[in-house]
Amino acid sequence: MISASIELKAQFYDVDPMGIVWHGNYAKFLEQARCALLDSIGFGYLDMATTEWAWPIVDMRTKFVHPVRFTQLIRVTAMLVEWENRLRIDYRVEDVASGKVLTKAQTTQMAVHRETGEALLESPPPLLEAVRRVLT
């Protein structure tokens, strides 16, 4: 499985008045891990921008198991689980000190032609080639 991890420290601007990371900020954490994953296969967002396809998020799911608190050091791991017909990435957010799983999430992206807005039902060659290079 292709994966990438990043470590983050929950900042003051991430938390609510109770010192717990506000749920909307998890999308930002996932995005950072997703960027690390896509960069690791040589098909990051700057590479995507050179193609005729955009990759919008069409589905995002998050399961909050335990809260992340102010100053807590976390590891966010992004794992590429589907790429032939869509780009599906699973995520795991863990406490660095204990390894305890705090959050599980998933995003799905589809290739959409930039000019026509047509959704592609299979991933275009640039993504498939990038994944093949890593897997071989």
Commentary on this structure:
It is built from 3 helices and 7 strands; from the N terminus they run βααββββββα. With 136 residues, the chain is an alpha+beta fold. The strands form 2 sheets. A 5-stranded antiparallel beta sheet has the order 1-4-5-6-3, covered by helices on one side. Strands 2-7 form a two-stranded antiparallel ribbon. The radius of gyration is 16 Å and the shape is elongated. 24% of the residues are buried. The model has no long low-confidence stretch (mean pLDDT 96).
Q: How many domains make up the 3D coordinates?
A: 1
Report the end-to-end length measured between terminal Cα atoms. Answer: 12 Å
The class by helix and strand makeup works out as: alpha+beta
- The main sheet orders its strands as 1-4-5-6-3
Mean pLDDT: 96
Please state the second-level CATH architecture.
Roll
* Helix content class: 10-25%
Shape: elongated
Q: Largest sheet, described in full?
A: 5 strands, antiparallel
At the fold tier of CATH, the topology name is Thiol Ester Dehydrase, Chain A
Rg over alpha carbons: 16 Å
Q: How many distinct helices?
A: 3
Beta-strand proportion: 35-45%
CATH class category name:
Alpha Beta
Element order, helices and strands? EHHEEEEEEH
Identify low-pLDDT runs. Answer: none
Q: Total number of β-strand segments?
A: 7
Specify the CATH homologous superfamily: Hotdog Thioesterase
